[in-house]
Amino acid sequence: MRTTKPNSTIAIKTILLAVFFLLVFLLVIILRSSSLPARPLSCPPIKQSLPEDPQTCNKLSPTTAETLVHYVTSNITPQQTFKEISVSLRVLNKKSPCNFLVFGLGHDSPMWAALNHGGRTVFLEEDKSWIQQIQSKFPNLESYHVVYDTKVSRASDLMDIGKQKECKVVEDPRVSKCELSMKGNLPDEVYEVEWDLIMVDAPTGYHDEAPGRMKAIYTAGLIGRNRADGETDVFVHDVDRVVEDKFSKAFLCDGYLTEQEGRLRHFTIPSHRARLGRPFCPL
Fold first, then answer.
1. Are 102 and 121 in contact, with CB atoms under 8 Å apart?
2. Which of 92, 95, 124, 176 would staple 181 via disulfide (CB 3.0–4.6 Å)?
């Protein structure tokens, strides 16, 4: 039979070692706890940022909504090609919302108003009955009736008149002495607004008895030159025709021509009032 003394000695040593390691472990825990910064007894609740008015939402403008419905339900397409429209669209993307004056009221009018969302788009139309027809479909379009007193058959005479000294003077179209200026033909709003873009796509000009765009082109250039500062982008459509071709080059100037795509020309007309002494066309 074995004696119990050696076993009891081993057991005592084992217990002492266990107590030693337990004390060391507790000491390490205490030291770590004392080295950490004290935590607050309670943390404030996390605030959630909510919109002030959760009921509000962004709605399409009436003009944009009407435009979408029109083009989805109609087989009629705009008069200009995709590439031609893209020229004006690039400028609108940079300048809108802006002031956009359009000579003409047509199937593309809702598109122009929608592309200038938030800005002011005004249409000038020669045909009263057509204005009524378009307004019945698109009551939010701003359009005005304009009377023209010219004919395409007089284009050559008017070109000669445009070369006279009084037609090179930059001033308010209402007081201009040039016969090409539209003095009292337009509503006051047109003369009093500084237009950022002007589109000349009217009046009718495809036969000798039609009004032609001689005065519209000249007046668009005069409006651009007469602004206080900055520049006006002027677009002329149907430049494959004689009047639009010659009058745009003569009165909007080759030197101001920025781009041509198909039947559309884009001119950038700077203010002549901001820098006095500019020649009517750049030399």
1. yes
2. 176
What whole-number distance in Å separates Cα of residue 104 and Cα of residue 56? 37
Residue 118, phi-psi category: left (phi > 0), alpha (psi -120 to 50), beta (remainder) = left
| CA pair distance 70, 67, nearest whole angstrom | 5
Q: What is the pLDDT of residue 169?
A: 97
Max CA separation in the chain (angstroms)? 144
Q: Each residue of 133-185: pLDDT tens digit?
A: 999 999 999 999 999 999 999 999 999 999 999 999 999 999 999 999 999 89
Give the ranges where the chain is alpha helix by DSSP (H).
Answer: 5-35, 62-73, 82-95, 109-115, 128-137, 155-162, 188-192, 214-225, 242-248
CA–CA separation, 261 and 237 (whole Å): 10
User: How far lies 282's CA from each of 21, 225, 264, 277, in Å?
Assistant: 97, 12, 21, 11
How far apart CA 53 and CA 4 sit, in angstroms, is: 85
Q: Tens digit of pLDDT for each residue in 192-215? A: 999 999 999 999 999 999 999 999
In the block, tokens 């200038």 appear at 116
Give the CA distances from residue 29 to residues 24, 34, 55, in Å, rounded to whole numbers and listed in that order: 9, 9, 54
The CA distance from 97 to 223, in Å, is: 19
Question: Quick one: pLDDT at residue 60?
Answer: 65
Q: Name the DSSP class of 277.
A: T
Q: What pLDDT band is residue 72 in, cutting at 50, 70 and 90?
A: low
Instruction: Tally Cβ neighbours within 10 Å of residue 16.
Output: 10
Q: Is 269 exposed, middle or buried (0-12, 13-18, 19+ CB in 10 A)?
A: buried
